[in-house]
Amino acid sequence: MDTTKSTTKQMDSLRKGFRAMNRFIVWMWKLGMGRMINFWPAVVGRIMIIKHRGRKSGKEYLTPVNYAKVNGEIYCTAGFGAGSDWYRNMQANPMIELWLPEGKHQAHARDISDSAERIFLLRQVIIASGFAGPMFGVNQKKLNDEQFDKVTKDYRLVHFRMDGQ
Hints:
The chain is α+β, with helices and mostly antiparallel strands and 165 residues long. It has helices at residues 8-30, 34-37, 85-92, 118-128, 132-135, 145-151, and strands at 47-53, 60-70, 73-78, 95-100, 103-111, 156-162. It has 6 helices and 6 strands; from the N terminus they run ααβββαββαααβ. A hairpin with a 2-residue loop joins strand 2 and strand 3. The radius of gyration is 15 Å and the shape is globular.
């Protein structure tokens, strides 16, 4: 399913589907099955949980996202763009907690969408997202850098600096 030509209504339906799936993923993590969720990264993707605080409510939220580890650093993308609630929450409150398969870590989130390495790093995140990238019309194996940049222009790239680094 290529969403690059989807209508607003279709994208809203897709978001609702992801929200339902996200509740299941968070539940699995809470049961201690985070490693199991990451059992087949090439297909399912690498999934972590971001524990963040609401920018208005102050309430804590748990959001599953795909991520990539590049040279020991953690990156993810807001595929729905800067309007994603978790992304806006992190902009307001960048101190978050990451739930990774190897454990929980305090981290500082920072948007690096303007980085000179954006294309390379974002491509790594899309590769690590398994089925999600191609489903959203971002087939990293078929797109050259110029095409990839155009298709992902609204994506936000986030870097996480772990406390103690």
